[in-house]
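Entry 14. Ran structure prediction on the chain below.
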Amino acid sequence: MIPIPQYLLDVFQWLVRSSFHASILLAMILLVRAVVKGKFRFRMVYWLWMVLLLRLIWPLNLQTTFSVFNLIPKKITPEQYLSAQTAEEGPSNQDTIGLRQSEPVISDTDASSDGILVATNDAVNNTTAAPAVTFNDPMSFWCTVWLIGAEGLAAWVLFNNFRLWSIIKRERLITRQEILELLEDCKSQLGLQTVIGIVETDKVKTPCLFGYLRPRLLLPGGILDEMEQRELRYVFLHELGHLKRHDILIGWLMAVVQVLHWFNPAVWFAMAQISRDRELACDELALSSLKDGESKEYGATILTFLERFARQQRLPAMAGIAENQSLLKRRITMIAQFKNKKISWIPVIAIILLLLATTFTSAQADSDPNTAKEPSKTETANTSPSKPEMLVLDDGNSAGKRSIAGSGHAVFFETEKKSELVAVMLYGSRYGYDQPPKEKFHVWLCDMDQQVIEDFEFPYSTFKKGDPKWVKMRVKATQLPDRFYICVGFNAEQTKGVYVHYDGAASGNSYKGLPKDGFSEFEEGDWMIRAVVRPMGGNGASSSSVSSGNLQSMIDAAETGATVEIPAGTYEESIKVDKSLILKGASRDECI
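Output, structure tokens:
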């Protein structure tokens, strides 16, 4: 089986997401074009396509509330639904206890009915390379198909451009003085100073511009003798318009996008639309440089080329006057109706900014009920000490992922109050075979000497294949020291491990290794591993962190099943207990 490096899978997943988002943007652009038809110049509409090209190579995945993708219903798996149900069983408000880490970020989400405080860290791979993924994983199969198609298309594009370039560089440049003077006049008319050579060759069937850094104006053989200088002037203006608008450079960008997103029919359709609008925009630029009354002659020249010359093969480094014969009616209509008047760019700029804001960001991940968020300082201050909250090192944004099969990852935490561990949360997903491994993985609670306080085992079925998500693993309540490590290790074969994510921008309180081997520093941020804790009483027993005061209020504040330690004192008032509690404390006859 062919191994697929993990970084290629990451690239492929990014491409699929970007391609989907760009398809939505394409629909929005087509809608805008239909609404503004006849009101905007094609040069204005053409800039909308530049937004699409940029979106197709946009590497960031920023999440905002105003993203248009928030409107798309998200697919909820049974596991996510069950996780949501579990989270809803818990209290709606979770309060702060005295926990701290180096540069801590406290979050109060994802507490369940057992009162959980989670310390989180992004989990990542070790410094060793991520294991290869094989065809047993459908994602790796489709990644391989994409890679083969992309390499084949890229090879075809580069070969054809190189072949034409190798031919053109051997051709002699035109030195006829009247032709060169005509070219200079046209360059001056468009405000161009770029050095450009003219080549007459039988290798092209229509006038076109070739190359960007050292551009050449390619003319079919014999055209200089067949056409009048007046007609050549219109041809030169059109091709120089491509140069002025940097259409060759954009053509290469289109080629890169098409190679990367070759699997998406919407991208092929978009590239065809861009090519069509490019010619119309170039016609507008050429017409804007002509005098009144010359537009009809320009249109007649275009019509002549479209009728006489066969369609030239389209290459990224080439832009031709008769490149698209299917545009005949639209181009002639536009040329006939063209009026050289100023039009405000403000509406176009406003539309572009709106598209950038709503489509270059992704839907917020808050829809995942297991995703932790950071509370405001006000929310933290107003929470009750009897409620749990999360202690986080990461910011919830994944910068990367790594397999931790057999190597182990650890996170360091520090507490100011007595507390106990009740669960561990981890952001990741399983890879490899569809069936989870039979063996179990381990979560260790360690002291500062890296001695194991408690060893917890969980089945690999705890994690599902597919998109990563927060997974909560409940453990038996275990008292925590003031400073402790949470270590996670997977001991399955590399082809059936778990990817854990990490936050590369975090301060760095994460380590590599297993308790028995010792921990070494992890320099890429913090693992997305979160320890879930709840407060304890002064003697180490679980309590509601109560102080002296009204006994009834302490009873009311306690959670079902909690142990309430009653402070020393005399309580004369009657109380009502309407839930299961354990009451501890001294009384007149030494019992309660």
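The radius of gyration is 34 Å. Will compare against last week's run tomorrow.
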